Amino acid sequence: MKPLLIGGDWLRTSHGAGNVNPSDTADVIDTHAEAGIAETQTAIAAARDAAPAWGRSTPQERHDILRRAGDELLARREKLGRLLSREEGKILPEGIAEATRAAQILHFFAGEALRQTGELIPSVRPGITVEITREPVGVVGIITPWNFPLAIPAWKIAPALAFGNAVVFKPAELVPGSAWALADILHRAGTPPGVLNLLTGPGRVVGQAMLDDPRIDAITFTGSQATGARVAAARPGGRVQLEMGGKNPLVVLDDADLDRAVHCALDGGFFSTGQRCTASSRLIVTEGIHDRFVSRLADRLAALKVGHALEEGVEMGPVVSQDQLDQDLAHIERARREGGHLRTGGEVLRRQTRGYFLAPTLITGTEPAMTINREEVFGPVASVIRVRDYDAALAAANDTPFGLCAGICTTSLKHASDFKRKAEAGMVMVNLPTAGVDYHVPFGGRKASSHGPKEQGTHAREFFTETKIAYTAP
């Protein structure tokens, strides 16, 4: 049984949960200890005790730990990528790419630990100086989802540590293996006891205990909108950072390069099994290119090789669990009942191993008000909305409670520039898939997609530090 990490010690509990491969449900990868309320409270106490000394540690110490951890991640990216693909279901090249990205994130924030700056400015009053500096928040609770089990924990843990905070980390129950490997690497890289604590176990117990404990100074969460709302409600007025998904549009105009548009829709909507908060789940297509685009995309989806995530040549793996598969199928069926046309996919696939395989699904003839265009599916399912022109496409793109990412495929500089300005989203892509962002720039959305400061890049300091202003007279 893989233990918990609390106060620098690896601790086992009386209960454990199996880590099951969604490509082959007969394959139990390992068993992980399940934390309860007592273990959670002990971990929070350990973080509380460790936070003052870690907050006063040198930038060089923090840099060295993150750098060593990033180096090991990079050296072991193929093995870690295989573990990730085995437990989450994304194909092996995607798993290795995510492990590589996690290493790059750690390396970036190793640098940020050394790049912390302040300001020294004169007061408006004679003889007085003003210093503006940043200090650690204290203890940060980190709650991460299952779809990026290395990258998302890395982009939350790395800045938390770089800026001097202690961490209590609760990963998603479906992917404990990647989280355990990351915590183990950081632990062996020299993270002091109590600075990083790992709690595997059910969210309803561990996550709730974290939310209820005032000794945690800040909570950063990525997951569903419903759970994010509960996190916010549990901490009214507190320091909370929420990333809660999207219903991202990809606009395809008549003047788009057809091959590029199809690639953007395929990559953004269906790679990583469509299980990305930035996935292109709404394809908004103007009349002149609609039929050609739909035909080309449907043919490509029908030919997509779906299978075991570790099998060579597979282009799309399984969805992550039976619950997720059931949710995807329910959305497909409801879209059909509401008038959508199932152009391709929609069926559960049988393979040599028993897994959660769903054919990539394209639903045409949909309207903006249909459920399939209002709620996040989080699977290999995209809907098509046919519109008259660019103005109608922009209106449809913005007709959503979410605002994470929006994309457009066009050769018109006028329309591309207008879309970048008017799309109601935190991130905008032009002739690129909506899924796929850089690790050194901010990440986050608007409206119901996000709450609080942006993640990643230099903007991460806004959440993980407090500003202090000091006035000094002679």
Describe this structure in words.
39% of the residues lie in helices and 23% in strands. With 474 residues, it is α/β, with parallel strands linked by helices. The protein folds into 2 domains: 4-244 and 449-472, 3-Layer(aba) Sandwich (Aldehyde Dehydrogenase, Chain A, domain 1); 248-430, Aldehyde Dehydrogenase, Chain A, domain 2 (3-Layer(aba) Sandwich), CATH 3.40.309. Strands 14-15-16-13-12-18-19 form a 7-stranded mixed beta sheet, sandwiched between helices. Strands 9-8-7-10-11-21 form a 6-stranded mixed beta sheet, sandwiched between helices. The chain has a 3-stranded antiparallel beta sheet with strand order 5-6-22. Strand 3 and strand 4 (24-33) form a beta hairpin. The chain starts with a strand and ends with a strand. The mean pLDDT is 97.
The proportion of residues in beta strands is 15-25%
3D shape: globular
Cα gyration radius (Å): 23 Å
Number of structural units classed as domains: 2
By CATH, the architecture of the largest domain is named 3-Layer(aba) Sandwich
Specify the biggest β-sheet.
7 strands, mixed
CATH class of the largest domain: Alpha Beta
- Discrete helix count: 14
Mean pLDDT: 97
- What is the share of helical residues? 25-40%
Low-pLDDT segments, ≥5 res = none
Gap between N and C termini: 61 Å
CATH homologous superfamily label of the largest domain = Aldehyde Dehydrogenase, Chain A, domain 1
